[in-house]
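Q: Give me the 3D complex with 6-phosphogluconic acid.
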Amino acid sequence: MNRATAYREIIVVLGVSGSGKSTIGAMLAKHMQVPFDDADDFHPIVNKEKMAAGQPLNDEDRTPWLETLAYHIADRSRQGGGVLACSALKEKYRKALVRYCSSPVRWVHLDGSRELLEERLSDRQGHFFKPHLLDSQLDTLEPPTYGWRLDIKEKPEAIVSQIIELMKMEKADFGLVGLGVMGKSLVLNLASRGIAVSAYNKPRTGEERVAKEFAAAHADRDNLQVYDDLPQFLESLHSPKKIMLMVSAGPAVDAVLDELIPQLEPGDIVIDGGNSHYYDTKRRVNFLREHGIHFVGCGVSGGEEGALKGPSIMPGGNLDAYSAIAKYLEAIAATDKNGRACCTYIGEEGSGHFVKMVHNGIEYAEMQLIAEAYLLLRERAAMTIEEIAALFSEWNQGELQSYLLEISAELLPFKEGDDYLVDLIYDAAQQKGTGGWSTTAALDVGVPFSTVSESVMARHLSALKPLRVIAAAKYGRVCVPDDVDRTSLVESLRHAYASARVVNHAIGFEMIRRTSDQYAWQINLSELARIWTNGCIIRSGLMEDLVSAFEKFPDTHLLLIDTYVELLKAKRQGLSSTVAKGIEAGLSLPVFSASVNYLNGFTAEQSSANIIQAQRDYFGAHTYRRKDKSLDQIFHTDWTKHS
Ligand code: 6PG
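A: Here is the predicted complex, encoded as structure tokens.
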């Protein structure tokens, strides 16, 4: 996978000729399982000939060589890091070497006495470097005042072990609190990108061994430290500290902050990567600001696998704070089709958690649509689970492609013995809250949000299982007309599903636009769609298309953009007839119904709201406005007095 923006570690083992940098660099690279490069192999032939002829290289000779190496290091950095053995004698050479490399570089200087160096060089056979050039190298050498200096007296194995120990002892760049499923995956993701990471899990009752077991399981990682002691964990981090919290949303976040705040310093950055409510995030941003600490509310989507291999990341809060942590978050994020990180600064305050909440609202409705399609196919078209899985799989090859459709096609045929597992799962949906929160938020802003709100209510209705069992016995089944044409039902459903998905995304993005306007967050919808094209749960072909749709028409309601007008005009009939067929068969299709109702309502010039206004005015003198008068004027009628 092309990871153009990833952050990778480069180690440069430097020193004059004979210091052993090639041997030690190669051994170190082998231990770290990263590629090794010897800078000598990059010399142009003229340089090699010059050295073989006993002439020292000058700055001019080295310039093209350093330029080639600089490009090579930048490539290595993007591709996963590496070790380079290079003389890198002068400060300006070292600067030139890393000029294109965006990741930090560790410098390991192998130093030794002239006698030892000379002895080693005279033992060498067939090397183009002539021993008497050593003096010129020693004269040129400007030992770095940073990095690690190691004496070459030791055996190569001992020197490599020392470097590994130094790497372990070095302070970590990034800290993570909370080794639950997501926390562990994110830590491993960070470590796998070469980031020095420190993790902490509180040894609360029942979790006494979590940190120790995690440390033992990953003892081979030189850039990972694990603690169950908070002060030690904090001590292990570079300042300003960058600490990501992966703890359950709600009081647990405040409890961790209460412990952390007294031990943090102004300028430190705390990132909340859980599914926190954006109101809480707003409050925490302000509260931590009083202590001089930055708080970044960061949506993370992608589940366990995403967290490990590359989630979609939605950080919000202070922009300067984001800039300081961007390279870490962008390194661990998924990448879009152009190799850019699926991570972008969303906006101020709780905007990161806000968009994650709406993401989950869209996710709830997308999941419900698939569940409703399954219900219709099974109950109305009498299709088997295998047939439905095959149909979903086929849909997933084309314009309907999505991660949720893909996993649904995969999970349906899963068997336990002779039974399909889905048939054994108790049919009462659970939820952690984000869908409901987004519905409440939509009510607060006054945005129609019916696909999402219906998907939340469908979960609540499903949870009434005991009552549903009683009611089913009392009511019996609706008498279903048996004249179903499976082919046409499937075709209508395909159109219905395509239409409902567009409506659901239109509703979700409109909610974000309106809230962004209200809080002046200036959320870029195209950029948001871009970071949702990979890593997150609602990634899909449609999301790819929305990137350019919102780029071209940033201020337009999705259902008014020509592409989608054409799509819905061609397919809305399928949506209406699918809902009608399902409802007449006694099936519950709340999100398909909400989609067609939204579409019909949105595209109706004349609604029935005039009757609502009249009723309000009748019983409560709430007034109304008139089509035939200025909308600035309000009217009241005594409705009991007929003219
Ligand atoms: C994600 C998911 C993730 C989580 C949901 C589940 O984007 O990775 O949305 O955040 O799986 O919150 O939510 P419910 O338990 O409410 O279905």
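A quick observation: The domain at 609-641 is CATH 1.20.5.320 (Single alpha-helices involved in coiled-coils or other helix-helix interfaces).
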